């Protein structure tokens, strides 16, 4: 199986979904429900986007399993498509132009192909395992950062207030250890930013598989050190970590010391 053909499928479907969410945004943001908390939202566009992706996959890749944020599913042995129909729904709701469609193909639970499509800018981030990572066809490489104190860290927060407070405490401890910290609100794009060198690193807890399935592959194929949920218990069982290789070890240690693994 050539993963590059799966990337082509993800890009084609992702572009359709991106056009859809832009076209319907004005009405979609008036039809909003909540999920885990009152601040964890889902719009009509999230549902419509996932339905479109599932429909196209059923036509182009019949019989293959799909795991989506809104309609569920499971990862199976063999090939599973992992879909985030809008990553960054709160940004989408407010009109903050940092959200994306994320589609990945996983083989036996590991990402082998992925695409992250930005509806507002039209940027297309892609990776196929063993074949590198790209932004609009330009090969990506993680930053050459080598000093933690001069690095830019991306971060994310839980929707649950009690956990958010613990994360804020860990963030405060990290704030004197790095150049600066960014919170943009779309995990897939934060991981892509690490791949491009726009961030030197990124760390967050409690991501769904759909949040990282494509973006983490893109970061890894760009040379970043990536740890997925369950792979770095010192940072917490549900932590996702991606960093430029020159600072990965120091950042990992600093996060542990800051209490990141106890949030």
Specify the CATH architecture of the largest domain.
Answer: 2-Layer Sandwich
Secondary structure category: alpha+beta
Which sheet architecture does the biggest sheet show?
Answer: 7 strands, mixed
Major beta sheet, strand line-up: 3-4-5-6-7-8-9
Task: State the helicity in percent bands.
Answer: 25-40%
Strands, count: 14
Overall geometry comes to: globular
Number of helices: 8
Q: What Rg, in angstroms, do the CA atoms define?
A: 17 Å
Q: What fraction of the residues are assigned to beta strands by DSSP? A: 15-25%
For this structure, the CATH topology of the largest domain is Fructose-1,6-Bisphosphatase, Chain A, domain 1
CATH level-1 class of the largest domain: Alpha Beta
The overall pLDDT, averaged over residues, is 95
Description:
- The protein has helices at residues 3-23, 25-28, 44-60, 89-94, 161-174, 187-196, 209-221, 248-258, and strands spanning 32-34, 41-43, 65-68, 79-87, 100-107, 110-117, 124-128, 133-135, 138-139, 152-155, 180-182, 201-205, 225-227, 239-243.
- The protein is α+β, with helices and mostly antiparallel strands.
- It folds into 2 domains: 3-139, Fructose-1,6-Bisphosphatase, subunit A, domain 1 (Fructose-1,6-Bisphosphatase, Chain A, domain 1, 2-Layer Sandwich); 148-262, 3-Layer(aba) Sandwich (D-Maltodextrin-Binding Protein, domain 2).
- The strands form 3 sheets. Strands 3-4-5-6-7-8-9 form a 7-stranded mixed sheet. It has a 5-stranded mixed sheet with strand order 11-10-12-14-13, sandwiched between helices.
- Helix 1 runs antiparallel to helix 3 (44-60) and helix 6 runs parallel beside helix 7 (209-221).
- The radius of gyration is 17 Å and the shape is globular.
- It starts with a helix and ends in a 5-residue tail after the last helix.
- The relative contact order is 0.14.
- The model has no long low-confidence stretch (mean pLDDT 95).
């Amino acid at each position: 199986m050539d993963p590059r053909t799966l990337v082509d499928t993800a890009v084609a479907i992702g572009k359709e979904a991106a056009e859809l969410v832009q076209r319907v945004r004005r009405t979609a943001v008036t039809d909003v429900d909540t999920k885990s908390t009152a601040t964890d939202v889902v719009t009509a566009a999230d549902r419509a986007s996932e339905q479109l992706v599932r429909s196209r996959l059923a036509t182009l890749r019949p019989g293959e399993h799909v795991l989506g944020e809104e309609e569920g599913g499971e990862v199976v042995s063999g090939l599973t498509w992992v879909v985030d129909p809008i990553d960054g729904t709160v940004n989408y709701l407010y009109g903050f132009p940092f959200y994306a469609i994320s589609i990945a193909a996983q083989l036996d639970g590991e990402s082998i192909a992925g695409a992250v499509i930005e509806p507002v800018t039209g940027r297309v981030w892609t990776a196929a395992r063993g074949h590198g990572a790209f932004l609009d066809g330009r090969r990506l490489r993680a930053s050459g950062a080598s000093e933690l104190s001069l690095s830019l860290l991306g971060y994310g927060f839980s929707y649950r207030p009690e956990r958010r407070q613990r994360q804020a405490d860990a963030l405060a401890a990290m704030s004197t250890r790095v150049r600066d910290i960014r919170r943009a609100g779309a995990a897939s794009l934060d991981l892509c930013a690490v791949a491009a060198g726009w961030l030197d690193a990124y760390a967050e807890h409690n991501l769904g598989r759909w949040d990282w399935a494509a973006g983490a592959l893109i970061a890894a194929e760009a040379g970043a050190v990536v740890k997925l949920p369950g792979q770095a218990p010192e940072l917490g069982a549900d932590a996702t970590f991606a960093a430029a290789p020159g600072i990965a070890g120091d950042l990992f240690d600093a996060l542990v010391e800051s209490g990141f693994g106890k949030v």
